[in-house]
Every structure is written in C-alpha cells, then in structure tokens.
Amino acid sequence: MNKKGLLIVISGPSGAGKGTICKSLLESQEFWVSVSATTRSPRNGEVEGKNYYFMTRDQFLDKIAQDDFLEHAEVYGNLYGTPKSKVIEMLNSGKNVILEIDIQGALVVKDNYPDGVFIFILPPSMEELRNRIINRGSETPESLMTRFKSAYKEINYVSKYSYAVVNDTVEVAVNKIKSIVVAEQCRVDRMKENFTYSKEGLIHEQFYD
Ligand code: 5GP
C-alpha cells in the first residue's frame, strides 16, 4: 500500500529564512514544495511557476470562485493561495508536501487538516531579522516598515504551531525539520488507521513496509 505523505506547513515572519529552508528541503526526493498563486508583482529573478503563479486579482478571484485553493489569504495587500489539486495529488503519491504560507492560511489549514505538521521558523534575533529584510533589497521603505511591524506581531503566533525552529544556520534548521518529519512518521496514532488485529493480536508486519 502506498503511504500518503505528510502535509507540512511552514510559517514565520518575513526574513526568518523560510524560502531558503524550503529550497534546501526540495533537494531531498521525499519533499515537494507547493507553488502558490499570488497577485503580487514578481521580484527580480522570480520565475513564473517556480516561485509563484503570478496572476491578476480577477484571475485570482475566479480561482476562489472555482474552489481551486486549499486556503488563501490577503498578506501585505496582495492575495496568496495554495492550489488544491496538485497538493492532494502529491500527498497521495507519497510525497511530503510543504506549504510555505502565512499564519492566517496556516490556521485555516490547521482547522481543515489537523493531521498536518505545523512548524514556525524563528529568526536568531529581531536585530538579525531586520538586517535580513534590509539586505534583501527588494522592499520599498513603506513595505520594509510593514514587514517589521508584522514580524513583531506574528511571532506571538508561535504558540499555535507544534514546532518552533530557530533559523540560525540554514543547515541546522533543515536538519531539525527533517528530524521532526521522521518523528512524525513514527507516531503510532498516524499508523492506527492501518492496524489489523487477528486472534493472536496485532498483525505487526504492517509496520515494516
Ligand atoms: P512574499 O511576498 O515575501 O513572497 O510572501 C509574503 C507572505 O505570504 C509570506 O509570509 C509567505 O509565507 C506568504 N505566502 C506565500 N504563499 C502563500 C499562500 O499560498 N498562502 C498564504 N496564506 N500565504 C502565502
């Protein structure tokens, strides 16, 4: 029987390094990172279909009407959404699917899919977070201010997540996430639905597939 993959939700403030972490996870065959749709304009170097599916507000609203999103949210004045069908297809094929989404979206997914694994990425310090956002050089002064302010608010939501990972070094953070995934895959309550009992008790071969 083909085991379903885990749905892994990664959130954290702008500049925490979620993007770099997801890129690194994608190097492992077992992970697939969902590509979101957005109404935001592409930044320098961003590629259609790789970083995002860029679309107009009208196109996005059409997709909402067609129930094409697993979740969607307005972030910093732009719409972002997770295309539903591809995520389901990849989970069914056994891939661990990563959604790099904001807190509003993560909370919607948590309501609809409590079996998901919810991970919050924290910066090593607020000072370092500021430096990372500034050094990215992609934001206007107003957008920088919005992102700093939001970051302070967003960090309070860490308590809604199951895991917090401090992104001091990308390699260490990625290894922590991989360890979380291994631990989640070993949880007995995830296997329970496949338990079969005989007169002698549990048929335990099912743990060894
Ligand atoms: P950025 O504009 O920096 O690429 O992303 C801004 C925020 O939108 C980030 O917090 C990112 O995680 C979030 N985001 C990206 N894609 C999605 C999505 O599909 N759904 C939701 N809810 N948030 C998203």
From TrEMBL:
Positions that bind ATP: 12-19
Pfam families linked to this entry: Guanylate_kin
Broad EC category: transferase
Listed Gene3D superfamilies: Guanylate Kinase phosphate binding domain (3.30.63.10), P-loop containing nucleotide triphosphate hydrolases (3.40.50.300)
Compartment(s) of residence: Cytoplasm
KW Ubl conjugation (keyword) present: no
One Gene Ontology term of the molecular function aspect: kinase activity
Keywords, comma-separated and alphabetical: ATP-binding, Cytoplasm, Kinase, Nucleotide-binding, Transferase
Guanylate kinase-like domain location: 5-182
Catalyzed reaction equations: GMP + ATP = GDP + ADP
Domain of life: Bacteria
Matching InterPro entries: GK/Ca_channel_bsu, Guanylate_kin-like_dom, Guanylate_kinase, Guanylate_kinase_CS, P-loop_NTPase
PROSITE patterns: GUANYLATE_KINASE_1 (PS00856), GUANYLATE_KINASE_2 (PS50052)
Database matches in CDD domains: GMPK (cd00071)
The EC number(s) this enzyme carries: 2.7.4.8
Membership in a protein family: Belongs to the guanylate kinase family.
Function according to Swiss-Prot or TrEMBL: Essential for recycling GMP and indirectly, cGMP.
Classification via NCBIfam families: guanyl_kin
Protein name, per record: Guanylate kinase
Organism: Clostridium omnivorum
